[in-house]
Design goal:
The complex is a heterodimer of chains A (177) and B (571). Chain A has 177 residues and is mostly helical. Chain A contains 7 helices and 1 strand; from the N terminus they run αααααααβ. Helix content of chain A is 58%, strand content 3%. Chain B has 571 residues and is α/β, with parallel strands linked by helices. Chain B contains 14 helices and 23 strands. In chain B, the strands form 5 sheets. In chain B, strands 1, 2, 7, 8, 9, 10, 22 and 23 form an 8-stranded mixed beta sheet that branches. In chain B, strands 6, 12, 13, 15, 16, 17 and 20 form a 7-stranded antiparallel beta sheet that branches. In chain B, strand 1, helix 2 and strand 2 form a beta-alpha-beta unit. The longest helix of chain B has 20 residues. Classes of the chains: A mainly alpha (177), B alpha/beta (571). At the A-B interface, helix 3, helix 5, helix 6, helix 7 and strand 1 of A face helix 8, strand 14 and helix 12 of B. Strand 1 of chain A pairs antiparallel with strand 14 of chain B. The complex binds flavin-adenine dinucleotide and iron/sulfur cluster. The site of flavin-adenine dinucleotide has 41 residues of chain B, from helix 2, strand 8, helix 11 and helix 14.
């Protein structure tokens, strides 16, 4: 593990030295890193995939697109990486890493193997955790709120479901409710 | 500056120099160029051309990387501007970043600035109310500042003049304390706002809720079309810059108008370092500029100089304009320049709910923002223990709440079916502060900015009067809210630093007497008549009204006076 991190750092340094702000080639993903460039978080490919599954459980594909196809997990990562305090980032990453363990303990099976019903049941139990700085709870709360934000402000929803008007051209203060 | 030829001096000589291209400077530019005077407008920031340089104006919410949030790192690097309610991912390019333009805070003071062509006129909330004689006569009556050398009748025609061109929407409300103007149709109040208005009418004499008066083209006239502006489309994304020219900004209105005359020279990237005073001639002959790209020092010359760099920067420039004749700053014989700085106090808010009129909601957006409660304390006579008073904003909306408790399809479905809650009503205070000698700005000569100009040092704080005003606002508003049947009333002290209301004023105040003021009734420095100050620095007292309309009217009036004096060879 240690070696791997070192290797990655070495590769990263090499890239920086070689090309300044070089864009990582797509195949670099094979090394197991998250698929978007992050400044503060270190997220593995597996963790990213878990996050994608989690957001999809929250907002599943139905007759309309769900979280995965709207790439809401990447939005969550982007927001946590750029807009959250270091403390919350730490809790988020800790929670993400501890999530599967916590889940298995509750469900007797891993998140990936659990049925949708089981997943929902455990997620609801995480929602009920009272301890605010519990990493799993914090990770889940952040993920949920950013997934919701990302969903409601996605191009798909804003053009097809709750339409956003750039130019309303009117104001009516007595509109029938 | 080594190889000066006569020609290049000629090229650098104008009839008038205007320092600053913001709300007030734009008016000076328009007035002078329109009357045929060769006018140089110096602007420290970059050019911003109407529409072309509004990079975010047509973006949808999902096109912002952080959905309009400012990333943490940027927030931490810019704690001051970060506290401004209008600073977001879509507007940040029009705000000054803290580290780029440092100043000294002897007391915490949040100085919000826009350094670019157009200045803060791109960013303002466009609220525009006239002053009345209760404001101009206030200091003489209450003895809290020196007497204003002008009265409402002096400025009233200039308010009209400016309003007609800028386009101000409002109703003729017939209130002595808030004179009517030349209005385009008002943006109407909504159901709950009207309810509050009627409750006040029924129960509180001399207290009114009116439609907020604002610089928007609700129904443009020919003069607005001539400027290339069209009707406001209720986007309420104004601070990004408006492609319709729906609201007044220098960029959409006065500057292009001045440009069309062929008499305007607009020079961005030009920090004015100081005004040049010629002792032999006994007047100012021009200004010294640092080009921000080349760091080159260049002098420009003119018969008249208008200082419109916005209140505190105007103080800075004048204080930095020293000569043998004026060792303490240009025109500063009495040593009062920089003192009696005052501001507005927006530190109090109140909110509540209203469970009536649930058959209505609002549709579209109101660029005026809602309603306005003109000052009702100490207007006709002194009736409280504190001096002056406050105006207040008031607005109402139906909030939508989304049930986000579920997980999966349940969540997905409930998210897109928001439930309409009760009306949410809210108000914030707009308090007047008392100009005091110990609220001042001065130069910190030990520290200079990137262009070799001393840093400005600010010492401005609230006082007991401000605290009493706030207390009264809570008490009176609560009573008014209760009378209107509002529930769940909550008051909040926003605990903010002075300055965040972005209405800093004074330091170069007007007055009759050169011993106690810096400017005369025509905005001329008492001691240097060809230098005029018409931005917020000239304010003797602050009123409760939003100030910019008054700066614009002052500027148009002073420009007219200056041109007449130039004609008579007095300047
Ligand atoms: C978010 C926000 C909301 C506001 N809401 C309202 C409102 O509702 N109603 C209202 O009346 N007012 C409002 N204001 C305040 C209003 O914007 C200002 O009062 C107004 O712009 C002041 O005009 P000005 O010409 O004095 O200054 P500005 O418009 O700030 O222009 C000054 C210009 O001078 C330039 N300058 C400064 N120093 C130098 C120098 N040394 N050399 C060369 N150029 C220099 C600056 O770069 C700037 O472009 C608001 C402001 C903000 C930011
Ligand atoms: S509300 Fe009016 S002025 Fe503001 S952005 Fe929209 S159209 Fe432009």
């Amino acid at each position: 593990m240690d070696k791997l991190i070192k290797r990655r750092a070495a590769i990263r340094n090499l890239l920086i030295i070689a090309g300044g702000a070089m864009v990582l080639p797509a195949c670099y993903r094979n090394s197991g890193k998250a698929s978007i460039a992050l400044q503060n978080l270190t997220i593995s490919e597996d963790e990213e995939n878990l996050l994608a599954e989690l957001t999809e459980t929250l907002i599943p594909e139905t007759t309309t697109p769900g979280a995965k196809s709207l790439k809401l997990h990447l939005f969550v990562l982007k927001m946590v990486d750029d807009c959250y305090t270091a403390d919350n980032q730490k809790l988020f990453v800790e929670g993400l890493k501890g999530f599967n363990d916590h889940f298995s303990k509750q469900a007797g099976t891993s998140f990936a193997d659990a049925s949708p019903e089981k997943r929902q049941e455990v997620l609801k139990s995480i929602q009920d955790i009272k301890q605010k700085d519990d990493p799993v709870k914090k990770f889940y709360d952040i993920t949920k709120s950013k997934t919701i934000q990302g969903y409601l402000s996605s191009k798909y929803v804003m053009t097809n479901i709750v339409k956003y008007e750039l130019v309303p051209g009117r104001y009516n203060g007595y509109f029938p409710a | 500056m080594a190889n000066l030829t006569i020609d290049s001096v000629k090229e650098r000589t104008f009839d008038v120099i205007v320092i600053g291209s913001g709300a007030s400077g734009g008016w000076a530019a328009k007035e002078f160029t329109e009357k045929g005077l060769k006018t140089l407008v110096l602007e420290r920031g970059r050019p911003v051309e109407h529409v072309k340089d509004y990079p975010t104006t047509n973006m949808f919410p999902y096109e912002f990387e952080h959905r309009n949030e400012i990333p943490r790192k940027e927030q931490e690097e810019n704690p001051i501007v970060n506290r401004c309610y209008a600073y977001h991912e879509d507007t940040r390019h029009f705000f000054v970043k803290d580290a780029e333009h440092p100043y000294v805070q002897e007391k915490p003071f949040d100085w919000i600035r826009g350094y670019q062509v157009g200045g803060k006129s791109l960013l303002w909330a466009r609220q525009t109310q006239r002053w009345s004689d209760f404001d101009f006569e206030g200091p003489a009556r209450d003895e809290f500042a020196v007497d204003w050398p002008i009265r409402y009748k002096d400025i009233a025609p200039w308010y009209s003049y400016v309003e007609r061109f800028a386009g101000i929407s409002g109703n003729k409300d017939g209130l002595a304390e808030l004179p009517d103007g030349e209005f385009l149709p008002a943006f109407p109040l909504n159901a709950a706002e009207d309810h509050f208005k009627n409750a006040l009418k029924a129960k509180f004499p001399n207290r009114y809720l009116i439609s907020a008066r604002c610089a928007h083209l609700s129904k443009p006239n020919q003069i607005h079309f001539d400027q290339g502006r069209v009707q406001c489309q209720n986007r309420v994304l104004c601070q990004r810059g408006c492609p319709f020219g729906g609201y007044f900004s220098s960029n959409a209105s006065t500057l292009p108008w001045a440009q069309k005359t062929g008499n305007l020279t607009l020079r961005p990237f030009s920090v004015v370092h100081s005004i040049i005073y010629d002792e032999g001639k006994g007047k100012a002959t021009g200004v010294k500029v640092i080009d921000t790209n080349t760091k080159e020092e260049i002098d420009f010359f003119a018969r008249v100089v208008f200082v419109n760099a916005s209140a505190l920067n105007t103080n800075l420039i004048l204080l930095n304009s020293t000569s043998n004749r004026f060792p303490q700053g240009l025109g500063n014989d009495n040593g009062l320049m920089g003192k009696y700085v005052a501001f507005h106090n927006y530190s109090a808010t109140i909110s509540a709910e209203y469970n009536g009129l649930l058959e209505y909601k609002t549709d579209g957006r109101n660029p005026a923002g809602g309603g306005y409660i003109p000052r009702f304390r100490n207007v006709f006579k002194q009736e409280t223990d504190f001096l002056r008073g406050y105006a207040a904003a008031f607005s109402a909306r139906r909030a939508e709440s989304r049930n986000s408790k579920g997980v999966g399809e349940e969540l997905k479905n409930s998210l897109v079916k928001p439930e309409l809650g009760p009306w949410q009503v809210g108000s914030h205070m707009m308090g007047e502060t008392i100009p005091k000698e110990n609220n001042y700005v001065r130069l910190d000569k030990s520290q200079k900015d990137a262009w070799g100009v001393p840093l400005i040092s600010v010492k401005v704080e609230y006082d007991e009067n401000d605290r009493q005003i706030r207390k009264d606002y809570y008490e009176q508003m609560r009573e008014m809210f209760e009378a209107a049947g509002f529930t769940n009333i909550k008051t909040r002290d926003t605990d903010r630093n002075p300055g965040l209301d972005i209405h800093e004023m004074g330091g170069v105040r007007m007055g009759h007497d050169p011993k106690t003021s810096l400017l005369n009734g025509w905005h001329q420095l008492h001691a240097c008549k060809n230098v005029f100050v018409t931005d917020g620095a000239c304010m003797t007292s602050t009123g409760t009204q939003n100030p910019t309309l008054t700066y614009m009217a002052f500027t148009a009036r002073a420009a007219d006076y200056a041109m007449n004096e130039m004609k008579k060879q007095n300047l």
